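Researcher: Good morning. I'm working through a list of sequences from a screen, and I'd like to move beyond sequence-only analysis. For each chain I'm collecting a predicted structure so we can compare shapes side by side. This is the next one on the list. No need for commentary yet; just the structure.
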Amino acid sequence: MGLVMTLPFNLGGIIIHLQVQVIKDPAYKVLLGRHFDVLTGSMVINSMDGGQTVTITDPNSGKRTMLPTFDRRKPPNILKMHIAADIKPTIENFFQHLMI
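Model: Good morning. Structure tokens for this chain:
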């Protein structure tokens, strides 16, 4: 696989360019680390129900956005209401801006 030097991520309307290590069959879509946290000044808020919200700041404009997270085996309640065999392929498209 290899390294992608400057890959743009659109996270809630904030474009962040990151170096990405591409590996075969990872257990996750994207694993963000300290470099991402420092670059975006990320803040994480955990809720009692197991939810989590990440707030990031655009290092160039100062714009902030909040990104909810969820266990990829458990889609958010809004998706549970709409899951049907004919729309399952569109679920990933719905969250495409958050994932690679």
